[in-house]
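In the design runs reported in the main text, the only information available to the sequence generator was the tokenized backbone. The following block is the verbatim input for one such run; it is reproduced so that readers can re-run the procedure and compare outputs position by position.
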């Protein structure tokens, strides 16, 4: 999944505090709860569901989907990895 990780890394430069991720197709509408959310597109990653399933299986994301919109919360360790932060 190098292409997805390469897309995600810039979102975490500067220690982003965002952890919620929404998976969408370009052109879809989403009425969120007012919180900022990172969005990744099926148009860019046709196997996006499978990639996030792997992240969940490895403990890097948690599926928080309710309704039709696929939503995930990223773990702190994964966010640190993406941002390049190392903790003692």
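Verbatim output:
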């Amino acid at each position: 999944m190098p292409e997805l990780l390469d897309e995600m890394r810039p979102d975490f430069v500067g220690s982003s505090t965002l952890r919620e991720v929404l998976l969408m197709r370009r052109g879809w509408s989403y009425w969120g709860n007012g919180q900022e959310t990172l969005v990744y597109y099926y148009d860019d990653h046709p196997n996006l569901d499978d990639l996030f399933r792997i992240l969940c299986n490895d403990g890097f994301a948690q599926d928080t989907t309710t309704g039709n919109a696929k939503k995930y919360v990223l773990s702190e360790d994964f966010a640190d990895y993406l941002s390049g932060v190392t903790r003692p």
